[in-house]
Structure formats: C-alpha cells, structure tokens
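Exercise 7.
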Amino acid sequence: MADTGINPTAAALLGLLHEGPMTGGQLMAAAERRLAPYWSMTRSQVYRELPVLAEQGLVRLGKPGPRSSQPYAITAAGKRTFSRWLAETPGRDTVRNPVALRVAFGPQHSANQLKNLYTGANEYHTEALASAREQARDAKKAGDSYGAAALEFAVAYHKAALSWLKTAPVTS
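Solution. The predicted structure, written as tokens, is:
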C-alpha cells in the first residue's frame, strides 16, 4: 500500500467505478473484460475490498437490486483518492509464474511431467496471446489508445512466455 492507503485491487475497483455504479458481480465482469490480460483479481478480493472502500467513504452503496445485489458508486472522495493513487510511484512488479516455479524444481519431475507442464503452458499462452491481440485491436478500433497500450503489455508478456518455453529444459 502506498500513501493513499489503498492497495492496487481497491484502486482498480475505484477506476472501474468511474464507468458508473456496479455490483460486485458487474465489477468482476468489468475487471475480467478490461484488466484480466495483465491484472488478476479474484471474486474474494473484490468482495473483501468493497466494504472497506465503503467504510472509508470512497464508495457508497446504492439501492439493493434483484437477489439482494448491491450496487456501489464512487464518491468524490473516492475519485480524489484514485487520482492520488494514479500519481504515486507504482512500485516494483511482482512476478509469480506457476510454470517457472515448477521448472525451478525440474530435477524432481519426470520427463513426462515436464512435457505435460510445457504443453499446457504453451496452449494457455498461445490462446491468451490470441485473445490479448484481439482485445488490443478492438481497443485501437474503439479509439482507446490507453487500453490498447496496456493490452500490448499482455501481448508482449505472452510472446515472451512462449519464447521462454521453447528454451526450457525437457529432461532432468
């Protein structure tokens, strides 16, 4: 957490709420649609952060909807906090790649385990690359140059992962 006292997940929720009031489920869908290629958020994180943001006065609760869904809207204080968060130094990247972690323990794998690990990772990154490319193209067509730039990061990441997979050792 930085000077604003909010973590990146909370900040992402505030950023998404600039689009208008949303329920937790709608926020998850928006996060999946807009941020997932380069930023992960879980449902539990979203539902844990929303009450905290409300307690801090950064979002306000709307009228309950169907099935007790609770919409949240960003407040003026939330907009100011988000703006300050944007101005803060982002800090260092956190790299957590489950395939690289397993490769680090390569000698404990069988050759078949490694082959399956690489095959699965290759399939995932190939599909994710195609999806990120498509989303980046769509963002460019829609005139969203900032969204497209963030998605180009995802494109480069998946290209790098695929390149790395070609050089990873296959026998222990």
